[in-house]
Amino acid sequence: MIKWTTEDNQLTRVFQFDTYMEGIQFVHQVAEFAEIQNHHPFMEVDYQKVTVNLTTHEEGTVTNKDKQLAILIDNAYEKGVR
Questions:
Q1: What is the pTM of this model?
Q2: What is the mean pLDDT of each run of 10 residues along the chain (82 residues)?
Q3: CB 75 within 8 A of CB 67
Q4: Which of 22, 61, 65, 66 is the most exposed place for a label (fewest CB within 10 A)?
């Protein structure tokens, strides 16, 4: 999780893609993980990047839920869901 930053009680990471559609496919994969875990991140889509913010709203800070989802997201990105 080195590539994630912690600020304002949330984990943030920017993911880079070669094309807009690769970013959209990545967002879809993250959304599937979020539904399974019932833990939904904020995602912002730009032309060739997607920014993901994770926090547990009920706790007002980063929890293990966020860290677990971050690991799933990192694994998807590293395996080429882009």
A1: 0.91
A2: 88 96 96 94 96 93 95 92 54
A3: no
A4: 61
